[in-house]
Structures are given as C-alpha cells and as structure tokens.
Description:
Radius of gyration: 21 Å
Shape: globular
Structural class: alpha/beta
Number of domains: 2
Strand order of the largest sheet: 8-11-7-12-13-14-15
CATH architecture of the largest domain: 3-Layer(aba) Sandwich
Low-confidence stretches: 1-22
Mean pLDDT: 94
Helix content: 25-40%
Strand content: 15-25%
Amino acid sequence: MWMKVNRIGLALLFLLCGSSVSAESLYKYRVQLTDKSKSVHSLEHPETFLSERALARRASQGVAVDSTDLPVCRAYIERLESQGGKYISSSKWNNTVLMQVPDEAIALRFLDNSFVRSIKKVWVSPDSIMPRNKDRKEQVKNQWKKQDDYYGMGAEQIKIHHGDSLHLAGFKGKGIQIAVIDAGFYNVDAMKIFKNTTILGTHDFVNPSSDIYGEHNHGMKVLSCMAVNTPHVMVGTAPEASYWLLRSEDNDTEQPVEEDNWAAAVEFADSVGVDIVNTSLGYYSFDDPIDNYTYRQLDGHTSLMAASASYAAKKGLLVVCSAGNSGMDEWKKITPPADAEDILTIGAIDNMGVNAAFSSIGNTADGRIKPDVMAMGVHSAVVGVDGGTAFANGTSFASPIFCGLVACLWQACPWLTVRQLIQVVHEASDRNAYPDNIYGYGVTDMWKAYQLAMKLKADTDGK
C-alpha cells in the first residue's frame, strides 16, 4: 500500500466508467530464495546486468558491485514456473521473486525446493476491478493564468529554501536523472504544461500492459512539483532534470504486493543509471490487518520497501521519500519506507515554516532522526487534472519539491556521495543544532548547503 488517496487528502479525480468487472481468483506470493549459486552472471562482467550509467554512478562514489547486484537465478525461476507459478517480478537485492498462482496449493509446493527459504502471500485478486476512463484526455483544458513572478504558482515553495539562488547560479537539475515511483501519471501526455519536461521512459510494475498515463493522477501532481517548466505559470524545483515515470501503486487494493512492485521499480531505476528516486508512497496498514506493521518494525530493514531503499543508498542512489500523513491519526508515525537508512525523509510545513498537523512524526525504532527535513506540503502548487495549476496538501508534495532542489544541489556538487549530500542538507537546515521528531533538522537553506558542499570539497582537496 502507499499513502493512499484518502490518506494524502486527495480525491480520486480520474473518472471511472461502467460497472465493475469480475476477476478470477488469483494469488501472488513473495518467494524468498536462499542463494544465487546458479546465476549465469558474473561480478567480473557487471555490464551484462547494469547500464554504463549505473556503473559510472557507482564508480564516482566508490561503490563496488557485489553479490546483491547479481540478478536472481533464472534456473530457480524456471523451476517455480514448472511447478505451476507465473513469474511476475524479482528483487535481486532482497533475493526474492514474485510468483502468481491460481491455487494456493501450488505455492506450498514451492517450499519443496531446497533453494526456497520461505513464502509469503502478498496479494489476492479483488472481487472486482473498475475499468478506467477511455476518454481521459477530454478533461484536459490546458488553460492557465500567467503570474508576474518567473516561478508562477511555484514561487513560495522554491524560495522558502533559497532554491532560486541555485537556479540563478545555473543549477536547475540538468544532467540529473530522477525516477518518480508512484501510482500513475494521469494525462501527462496530454498536458501542454509538461511540454518542456524531458521524460526518458515509463514502466508499469503493477500491470505492464496498462497505459501509465491512464492511471491515477497522484504521480502527475508529484511530477509537476519538480518537472514543470512553464515560466510565469509554474516552474518546478528541477525543471531541467530528466525523468523516468514508474508505477508501483495499485489504487484498487492495499496489499503487500505493492512493496514487491516498488522493490522491482527502484532496482530498475538503479539499473538504468538514475541518480535520485522520489517516492511519495508509504505503507503501514493493509486490507488484511495481519500484514500491518508496528512501531518497533520501523528499523529501516523489516519492510521490503525500507530494505530496498536502504540498499539503494548503498548503491549510490539517493531516495527522497515523503514522511506520511498520519500525524493526526492513531498511527502518527512515519510510514515505511520513510524509516530506511541513508535516505531523505521529508515532512510538511506551510509557507510560514510551521509544521502541518497531518505530517507524520519520527523517530525510527532504532533512534534515528526522522523526518530529515521539511518542505511545503500545505497549499503546495501542483498541476491540476485539467492541465492548469492547482493546490494540494500532503507530504506527497513536500517530498518532490525538496527532491528537485537536491537534484540541483547534486548537479552543482557532483563529487558528493549520497551520505555527504544528506550531511550537507542536515547541516544547512535551521534546526540542525537541535533536531527533533517533528521537524527533523528543520527547513533547509539550499544555497547554504551549496556553500557547505564547496567548503567540504576544498577541505578534502587540501588534504
């Protein structure tokens, strides 16, 4: 599951048409494997499973390719297929495969294999699924009003961090690749406001045959905070970055399989050489309460998503994640993967720097400060479903707003490792001397972060 639409305070704005459609009973199981001893790949030839850009990113940060980078053994997948399973996806970092079966008895046969450590049911097909609107593009009007400010509607959420100073210095994200892992990018392909946005590719890990632009609008709104580049209407925080649009969230149900989808998506992002991942998703409760997480499991490794996000950091990939919108709920805490190690977890403030009551709080179960920093998540400027500008609330938007600014900082200071990048962000924030579980390190001055990064380089070069 994620921060579902009812949690992020957004309505389901794409239209549904017709009556529900019956679905056959199907099940998906996460199969935990024991090893990779039969892998046909070798660490001596990582170019067979990682792109040149992915290898260059690792090399620049001194990250070695190791056994966790090796793909899951194909021989093991073929054995599970011969037993009646259908391969859906895998996670090489966690050494798991996602298999679909028509009968739960088939999944139990998987345990007869010596290479299978455990199985976990992560998805049961819903009783019905709702068809998507086929005339979606008719909603797009592509109308807006121009503003005096160059940033248009996006001015406040950029200037509160002095992000405009980075932009004026020529750092707008050029050369940085950002993957947005979300629930769908409704009508992005039909909106003129995105005409200057560089989209490198798309992939749907929920349903590979779907139209990713015909799914949920949440990802479109998230993307807009960073990627829009229409002066005097709306300019995002990283208008010159390049984007991959990846779907992992299935809005029809709330089941653990979405963590498997996310794990596959973040590994895809790593393999193609993405620099930063933004994910405005989070999971702590599911359709079946037996799958729910507890506070003590917020350790950065228990949930599959947090484990994958922590792995991503080890691969030199920066993950920027929304803290969650449970601050006023019984749960209150951050939602996995926001508890992952060496990622940036973003809480929400208003334009006066006051925390939003809905913004989830930390810390992690093992005592790490969360959220890391805060960004505007109250009355955030986004693109609306009609292709014009709108406003929305949620840490879902605080995260991409800050993600884009970090992309600009990394463009300016490409020598920084993931940990160094996070370090300068913390140090440049207004509560760095007294971080807490509500604001984290506070509101970041991105120009100060740039200056700290330059000083760090000078000090390092001088040694």
